[in-house]
Amino acid sequence: MRGTARLCDVEKRTVMNILKLAGESCGRLLTEKIHNVKVQDCLELDEVWTYVGCHQKRLTPERVEKGMHGDAYTFICLKRSTKLVMAWHLGKRDRVNTEDFVSKIRWATGPGMFDVSTDGFQPYETAIDAGLYDRANHAAVVKLFSTVTQVVPESYRPARFVSVGKDAISGNPDLDRAGTSHVERKNGTLRQWCKRLTRLTYAFSRSWDSLRAALALHFAYYICAGFTDC
Question: 206: domain range?
């Protein structure tokens, strides 16, 4: 944003205001365009973590008054066959926001049965059962990682993958095809394209509205650049 402000000879705040206006417009555009889409294969759901202002453990009432929010999760619904992002939602990782996310999926999808794969996040079970009861065969995919890690100074290593478990939560999902690998790959793309979500850097959002606008711009570009129907 500072680079754009210098090139255009405007204040940084002007760039931020344009970002928010464009993000709001992109959000409305995707809601209008992605509606009643026929799903014949599987939808994959996942969440991407980031934070606004400060980490959740450092969030105090004083910081809340300054506009900090702590943890923020981007819920993503990906259509496996075409990699189309059917819906996304920014919020806390709780029951209320999960239900709001599922309601967006219902708006985006058309009538008919399809499979839905999620991780083991418990609110998905009740939210999908209530919001997609007549459409979704729900399967939960839980990946297990080793809790024993070798500590190496000045290094960052994720836990070692051990196994994966699949359970039918509702309906009759095809467990052989259940998985969340595609949406997790999309999570990696999001972190690479949207700097405020990149891990292990100084980059983070200072404003919830700015984060929402940046995400709306990202998904609009991703969808409209990759899908000519938009």
Answer: 2-226
Residues 6+ apart with CB under 8 A from 19: 1, 210, 213, 214, 217
**DSSP 8-state class, residue 151:** -
Question: pLDDT digits over 12-39, tens only?
Answer: 899 989 989 999 999 998 999 999 999 9
- List, in sequence order, every residue forming a beta bridge with 76; answer none if it has no partner: 46, 88
User: Could you give the CA distance from residue 121 to residue 142 in angstroms, rounded to a whole number?
Assistant: 9
Give the pair of three-digit tokens for residue 8.
């255009």
Q: Which two tokens stand for residue 204?
A: 């983070």
What's the rounded mean pLDDT across residues 61-86? Answer: 94
How far is residue 98's CA from residue 164's CA, in Å, rounded to a whole number?
23
CATH number, position 170: 3.30.420.10
In angstroms, what is the C-alpha Rg of the chain? 19
The values of phi and psi at residue 109, to 5°, are -95, 155
> How many structural domains does the chain have?
1
d(Cα 191, Cα 181) in Å, to the nearest integer? 16
Taking alpha carbons only, the member of 165, 188, 49 closest to residue 117 is: 165
In Å, how far are 11, 96, 99, 106 from 132, measured between CA atoms? Answer: 46, 16, 10, 7
